[in-house]
Amino acid sequence: MLGTLGAALACVAAMPGLAAAEVPRNWQIGMQAAATPVRERIDALHNELLVIITLIALFVLGLLLFVMFRFNARRHPVASQTTHNPVLELVWTAAPVLILLAIAIPSFRLMYFMDRTPKPDLTLKVTGHQWYWSYQYPDQGNFSFDSNMLPDAQAAAQQRPRMLATDNPVVVPVGAVVHVLVTSTDVIHSWFLPAFGVQEYAVIGRTNDAWMQVNRTGTFHGECNQICGNNHPFMPIEIEAVSKEDFAKWVDMAKKKFAHNDRETPAVRMADRAAR
Ligand SMILES: [Cu+2]
């Protein structure tokens, strides 16, 4: 299947020696490789649907070819007067219902799996702003920081992906269940991580939630995918998944590095930025 092929290609691309960041590539087929249980199940449903849709398309193509050959004007000059066939009508009503059921059952199962966060090990609060993201770690010392896109020159100098790298990436431990709370301070944004199967709207005055359990170390990228104004394409998401030990080290470092942010709310910092 295309998805599997794409996953294989993306795995090759992510191998050591090649670029470490898992980003879309030219001529890539399929989707980014799955990095969470949710995305693995999304891929599985996608592959199931691909089989169903391929069989339906082939069946309809077969019927069309049969009619074109068997009932064209040359082979079949006198049209049949048949109007009803109860058995056939029953079949073509019941078959699509059964197909829809076969799609709906795994689809609902997946929706509930995505919706219910297992017992979380960590909470990450994500706030969307025009036009950057800020992150808060409420149960790791409650530090918070802004994450802005790296300018092109800086990204090129550091050999990091253009328009996807940020100055302060989000860091999460591999294997931990991360409960993600998503909100906004201005307009509706959307926190979208393709490799994690997470897409959550950031809505003002409302907290949406999602969860992720990253299964391998690496740097993952996403973007705001709700048109949110002028600089909508310039608010990427960069997540580094690291071992539990490295995460603990990073938390110690981050508490000091972002200590100055602790007394300020994102709204205060935003007013601050506007004044600058
Ligand atoms: Cu946005």
Description:
The chain contains 6 helices and 11 strands. By secondary structure, it is of the alpha/beta class. The strands form 2 sheets. Strands 1, 5, 7, 8, 10 and 11 form a 6-stranded mixed beta sheet that branches. It has a 5-stranded mixed beta sheet with strand order 4-3-2-6-9, with no helix packed on it. Helix 2 runs antiparallel to helix 3. The longest helix is centred in the N-terminal third of the chain and has 34 residues. The structure holds copper (II) ion. The site of copper (II) ion has 7 residues, from loops.
- Overall SS class: alpha/beta
How much helix is in the residues?
A: 25-40%
What is the end-to-end distance?
52 Å
Proportion of strand residues: 15-25%
As a whole number of angstroms, the C-alpha radius of gyration is 25 Å
Biggest sheet architecture: 6 strands, mixed
Quick structural overview:
With 276 residues, the protein is an alpha/beta fold. The chain has six helices and eleven strands.
Keywords:
single chain, disordered N terminus, 276 residues, binds copper (II) ion, six-stranded mixed β-sheet, alpha/beta
List the helices and strands and how they pair.
Blueprint: H1 2-13, E1 21-22, H2 37-70, H3 86-115, E2 122-129, E3 132-136, E4 144-147, H4 152-157, E5 170-173, E6 178-184, E7 189-193, E8 198-202, E9 208-212, E10 218-224, E11 237-242, H5 244-257, H6 266-275
Parallel strand pairs: 1-10, 2-6, 5-11
Antiparallel strand pairs: 2-3, 3-4, 6-9, 7-8, 7-10, 10-11
This protein binds copper (II) ion.
